[in-house]
Amino acid sequence: MGEVVNLRARRKAKARSDKERQAEENRIKFGRTLAERDRAKKLSEIEKKRLDSHLLQEDTPPEDDAEK
């Protein structure tokens, strides 16, 4: 005779291992350290300031008294 297997325990063990595998994938995919997030934020701010400094200022046309 073979070994008696508790199927409920096997299902729970499989579910736990699946969750752990998914958690590991998420840590790799989404996990960033605080330093990495701060660096990305600072680089984004610097880039935004650089782009804003290159914006052309739209001058309002002078009002012409003849049009009134």
Describe, in plain words, how this protein is organized in 3D:
The chain has 68 residues and is mainly alpha-helical. The protein has a domain of 36 residues. It is 65% helix and 0% strand. It is built from 2 helices and no strands. It starts with 6 loop residues before the first helix and ends in a 15-residue tail after the last helix. The model has no long low-confidence stretch (mean pLDDT 89). InterPro entries: DUF4169. Pfam families: DUF4169 (PF13770). This is DUF4169 domain-containing protein.
Layout of helices and strands:
Elements: H1 7-30, H2 34-53
Region (Disordered): 1-26
Biased composition (Basic and acidic residues): 15-26
Pfam family, one: DUF4169
